[in-house]
């Protein structure tokens, strides 16, 4: 490999900690994060929430969900920064190396589902706006998104640097255009159709990024210190994600007949529609490359393969799913992440930040975290059916973490009794 190739294709540290000398600047890690959630999908979610809850309650749900994400992702990021571990290695501390194969394998597979959804959405959006061939656009988009991912974490920085400002500028323009037509008074008085409650809406916000948020170690392991890790996380949650959701919510309240940010801009026609196409590919390209990177880092660590080889294989699988149209059926399933994923991160936080601060990777299978994971997920499921006014994601997160803390205390007490005997 030539010197130039080495400069472009850096070491990705799939199975080891990122050494201090290889860490990235605050700007680099922040650009990786800010380009991830400031996307059209987030604006569509914000629009759906405001359309249902009305303007003020919708904005409250968006704020609460993003604050939960900031706390959750921020703490996981701190732990990843301290050791330089990706999520697969990080989860091996708490769940054991064998246990991490289940946890990391699950989350790394789920993000490939999101890659397929967003790749399919690229083709679908172009088809709706311009009548473009769905299969051709989806194939082209998938190949481009794989190409970006193969460059590695450096490419995530570059695409974030392009995508986020582009989205922000034209998002502001779209909001200004919608507001000028509807007026602020009509926006703030927008009542919504009351098809959701606050708890479900908060869960929608959290679920949108709970998977990659839990995999934050793949990104924050590159931070130089915990302070920079927190700042980088903050650029994503609440700033980038909330900005995209607020844009969508404002457009929904002002122009509810077309709340999709891309479709709103594309409908203007002329040169504006060309800008909309560039926005779509940059925007969804950013989220797709991030998701594929998460999946590739996770599976390469588990299988002992190189990240780029794994990304290529997983990307092809994602494209096939997108082309088949199966991605349409993934969205409801992926929203179940609000139940099963939050306890995982909460258990890791409680374990590594409070219970076993100095623990490192265990070769064994640790059963306690799995029991707590089951309890947290069960609590989320019960909340979903019997207390829908609460946030499923938050309930699963809190109960899962609390269950692990109680199980750890019980085990410690039992050990003390045996030693005393």
Task: Pick out its properties.
421 residues, mainly alpha, Hydantoin permease, disordered N terminus
Describe the structure.
The chain is mostly helical. It has a single domain (24-338), classed as Hydantoin permease, CATH 1.10.4160.10. Helix content is 80%, strand content 0%.
Main sheet characteristics: none
Helix- and strand-based class? mainly alpha
Unreliable stretches: 1-6
CATH class: Mainly Alpha
CATH architecture tag: Orthogonal Bundle
Q: What would CATH call the homologous superfamily?
A: Hydantoin permease
What average pLDDT do the residues reach? 90
Number of helices: 19
In percent terms, what proportion of residues is strand? under 5%
What name does CATH use for the topology? Hydantoin permease
* Shape call: globular
- As a percent range, the share of helical residues equals over 70%
Straight-line N-to-C gap: 63 Å
Order of helices and strands: HHHHHHHHHHHHHHHHHHH
| Total beta-strand segments | 0
User: How large is the radius of gyration?
Assistant: 21 Å
Count of domains: 1
Furnish the topology, listing elements before pairings:
Blueprint: H1 3-8, H2 26-34, H3 40-53, H4 55-83, H5 87-130, H6 134-151, H7 153-182, H8 184-188, H9 198-214, H10 217-220, H11 226-254, H12 261-266, H13 270-303, H14 307-324, H15 330-334, H16 337-340, H17 342-355, H18 367-386, H19 392-420
Helix pairs in contact: 2-7, 2-11, 3-4, 3-9, 3-11, 4-9, 4-11, 4-17, 5-6, 5-13, 5-14, 5-17, 6-7, 6-13, 6-14, 7-11, 7-13, 13-14, 17-18, 17-19, 18-19
């Amino acid at each position: 490999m030539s010197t130039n190739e080495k400069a472009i294709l850096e070491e990705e540290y799939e199975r080891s900690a990122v050494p201090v000398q290889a860490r990235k600047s605050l700007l680099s890690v922040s650009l990786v994060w800010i380009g991830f959630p400031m996307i059209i999908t987030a604006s569509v979610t914000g629009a759906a929430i405001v359309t249902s809850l009305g303007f003020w309650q919708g904005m409250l749900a968006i704020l609460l969900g993003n604050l939960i994400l900031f706390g959750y992702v921020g703490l996981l990021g701190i732990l990843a920064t301290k050791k330089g571990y990706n999520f697969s290695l990080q989860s091996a501390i708490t769940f054991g190396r064998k246990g991490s194969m289940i946890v990391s394998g699950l989350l790394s597979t789920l993000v490939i589902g999101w890659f397929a959804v967003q790749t399919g959405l690229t083709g679908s959006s172009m088809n709706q706006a311009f009548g473009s061939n769905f299969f051709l656009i989806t194939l082209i988009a998938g190949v481009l998104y794989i190409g970006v991912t193969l460059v590695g974490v450096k490419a995530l920085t570059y695409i974030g640097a392009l995508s986020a400002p582009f989205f922000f500028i034209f998002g502001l323009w779209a909001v200004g255009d919608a507001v000028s037509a509807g007026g602020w008074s009509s926006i703030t008085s927008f009542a919504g159709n009351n098809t959701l409650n606050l708890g479900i809406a908060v869960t929608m916000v959290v679920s949108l990024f709970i998977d990659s948020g839990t995999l934050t170690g793949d990104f924050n392991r590159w931070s130089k210190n915990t302070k920079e890790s927190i700042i980088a996380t903050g650029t994503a949650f609440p700033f980038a994600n909330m900005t995209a959701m607020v844009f969508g919510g404002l457009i929904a309240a002002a122009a509810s007949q077309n709340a999709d940010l891309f479709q709103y801009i594309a409908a203007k026609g002329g040169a504006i529609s060309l800008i909309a196409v560039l926005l779509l590919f940059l925007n969804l390209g950013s989220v797709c490359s991030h998701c594929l990177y998460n999946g590739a880092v996770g599976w390469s660590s588990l299988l002992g393969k190189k990240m780029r080889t794994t990304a290529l294989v997983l990307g092809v699988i994602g494209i096939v799913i997108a082309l088949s149209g199966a991605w349409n059926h993934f969205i409801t399933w992926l929203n179940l992440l609000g139940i099963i994923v939050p306890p995982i991160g909460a258990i890791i936080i409680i374990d590594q930040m409070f219970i076993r601060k100095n623990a490192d990777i265990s070769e064994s299978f640790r059963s306690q975290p799995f029991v707590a994971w089951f309890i947290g997920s069960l609590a989320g499921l019960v909340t979903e059916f019997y207390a829908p006014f609460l946030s499923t994601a938050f309930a699963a997160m809190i109960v899962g973490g609390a269950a692990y803390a109680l199980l750890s205390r019980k085990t410690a007490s039992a050990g003390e009794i045996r030693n005393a005997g």
